[in-house]
Amino acid sequence: MLEQNITIWPFIAFSVLVFFLIGVMICLSYVLGERHREKTTDTPYESGIPPTGDARLRFSSSFYLIAMFFVIFDLDAAFIILWAVSFRELGLPGYIGIVIFIAILIVLLVYELSIGALDFGPDGKRILKNKNKQT
To answer: How far does the chain reach from its first CA to its final CA, in angstroms?
Structure first.
């Protein structure tokens, strides 16, 4: 067995220095920071327009569905970029793998389009069709 002499004191000294600097910065910002309590101190500022109504609005479920689709396809783009960076090392098996991956993405996108999951606005014909089915 090889015995390694690991010195940990530089890490401990660095950690102590970091925590000391963080403490100094927080204390200085508390001591030197401005303190004022006017009438409008705690009101939100939105582009110079006074706030109206409640900030807790209800969003439709399609908003969250589209947000999830964006995250899914954004992550897929990251995987494809990583594949493109290392595609020489991956060779033919990596190429076949990314072709299958992109094919699955295309099938998923076609499916989502076919069920209307990516329709952003109201579609008059679809609304009328659903209304006629309910009656």
So the answer is: 80
Q: Average pLDDT of each block of 10 consecutive residues along the chain (135 residues)?
A: 74 96 95 80 68 71 76 85 90 92 88 75 56 56
Assigned domain for 2 exists:
no
Whole-number Å distance between alpha carbons of 43 and 55 = 12
Residue 48 CB neighbours (<10 A):
5
Domain containing 70 — which CATH number? 1.20.58.1610
Single pTM value for the model: 0.45
Distance, in Å, from the CA atom of 84 to the CA atom of 77, rounded to the nearest integer, reads: 10
Cα radius of gyration (the chain): 28
